[in-house]
Amino acid sequence: MRKCPECDHLHELMNEYDHRGDLEHQAIRRELSAALTSIKEAVIKAETASDKRFESINEFRAQLGDQAATFISRNEYGAQHEALAEKLSTDIARTGAMITELTRRLDRISGSSAGRNAMYGWIIAAVGALATVMTVVLIATR
């Protein structure tokens, strides 16, 4: 077999090309490995953040549940409201009756006072008339 210089040169170029390909392949592998490691770390961080967020959400839900348990129910409120409204209307009616009775008493007292004042006027007039008649009688008899 005969060797040709071009063939040797081609073999050298192919070997060099294979060697460069291997180096590039190794560099690509290193870059991919670094990228995958970064991605794994990012995923772990995201999962941790997500877990923390969901813990906060679950705590908030539990707090809302506790708070809702302390609220009065609609039926309870309705029953208490109805009882309170009934008591209020009873108290309003009783207060109205008391006001009417007090107004009546005040009218009676003012009427009684006016009658007394009128009676005092008549008594004074009668005493004055009696005094006048007595004076006239005394003057006439002297």
Compact description:
94% of the residues lie in helices and 0% in strands. The mean pLDDT is 86. With 142 residues, the chain is mainly alpha-helical.
Describe the structure.
This protein has 2 helices and no strands. It has 142 residues and is mostly helical. It has a domain at 1-71. The protein is rod-shaped.
Strands, helices and their partners?
Blueprint: H1 5-70, H2 74-141
Identify the notable features of this structure and list them briefly.
2 helices, mainly alpha, 142 residues
The tally of strands reads 0
Report on the biggest sheet. none
Shape: rod-shaped
Number of H/I helices: 2
The stretches of 5 or more residues where confidence is low (pLDDT under 50) are none
Order of helical and strand elements: HH
Into which percentage range does the β-strand content fall? under 5%
Q: pLDDT average, as an integer?
A: 86
DSSP helix fraction: over 70%
